[in-house]
Write a structure and sequence with these properties.
By secondary structure, the chain is an alpha+beta fold. 17% of the residues lie in helices and 36% in strands.
Amino acid sequence: MPILNSKQLKHFANARYDMVFGIQHQHTRTFSFPMLFETMPVSSLTFSENIIEAKIKDVKDSSVFSFLITCHQFWLYPEKIKDGYILSIHPDTIKSYGALENTITLTYKEGEYFGNKTSIFFTYTFSPPYKKNTESKKEFNKDALLHAVKGFPSKGFGEKLKKFDQGRFVPRLPAGDLLCIDHIEELDANHCRSTYYPPQPCSFALILEAALQPCGWLSHHMGCLDSFDDDTYFRNLNGELTIHTPYSSQTPITFDVKLLRATKLGGKLIVNFAVEGHQNNQHILTMQTTFGYFSKQSLEKQGGFLEKLPEHPYLPKSIPAELKDNRQFMVEEILYTDDQTIHCRRMLSPDDWYFKAHFFQDPVQPGSLGIQAFYDAVGLWSKKFVTPIGTCAWKYRGQALLSHSTLDVVVSIKEATDQKIIFSGKLWVDGVCIYDLERASVLC
């Protein structure tokens, strides 16, 4: 196998596929190239998304030597080159990490001395993570999607899940009012288009769900569950959604979803998506978001954010009865409010409606309803009807389960005018901070 020379590597770093791989339409190539190091004995390697940190053996010098791998990700069409990213790494002395059908392999021997005459060879094999078949022309209608809720996985997500039809646990789409996909069409490669008919009234949580759910559907359809032998759970980790134009109820919204990349590290598979939403031929929203496939054990280890629940004086205020009657309204009690803060609470119960809908065999409060609680709190603070607009950025590091009892939401007002409110917030479950709303805004 030829080794790339410096001129070819320069083109590779600049993402010129044709100069490195040759013919643009040949989808599978393998190549190796050297990385030179200063003389040092290596005792350990640490992996993150796109950096390998090699620690030297001399305990007197605990410095960490790092370098960036400049491999790029390629999907089915070579001209669609994504940002530099490691799809997967697996040194032969550590448990293998694989991502879909793409691999980057680092070979080294434990304790080996890396010197200026030594090279580490990387092998990058590109093969399409999605192969076209007749099913790519098939439209998944509401009847098929009901199988994705509680039925045969292969009928709801596609034939790649045929082997899961008999008993194996599969992460599902939500049920009932929380199923925010009416059909999926234009399915091709790492892209799908979904349609949602928002009800009247339609909360922000439902729009957020409508943008997020086709991401999970697409990654299942593409075969991401094939990376695991045991039961695997699917959770949203973070996202940034921007509403460019306020959405309308009872008018269909189409969502174009692209799976950008998939990275398997340890027992987790992290998948990244880009989403665009259109309504009435208008571009109304964009979103970048990250999900993860996790074992049950790794979910239980989520420790939340290191943020203590504020000890506000207890100054309760009443909530209008019509709001309490709306089951999508996520606040039950105002504990404290001032000119920059509002602290609200909701008591959780195993009988809450959303535990039955989200998900089959895996009850957990939807993160979107936690985000909704922030918007509800802002409406209570302003004493006005508010309309989501602009950017909403969030991070999740925990979950609200059947065993939990108390949900606390604290919103901090950053800027408020007669027309617009900008805010941030945090959410605690039984005293553990699990959601961080970095920023959001509403019209009022």
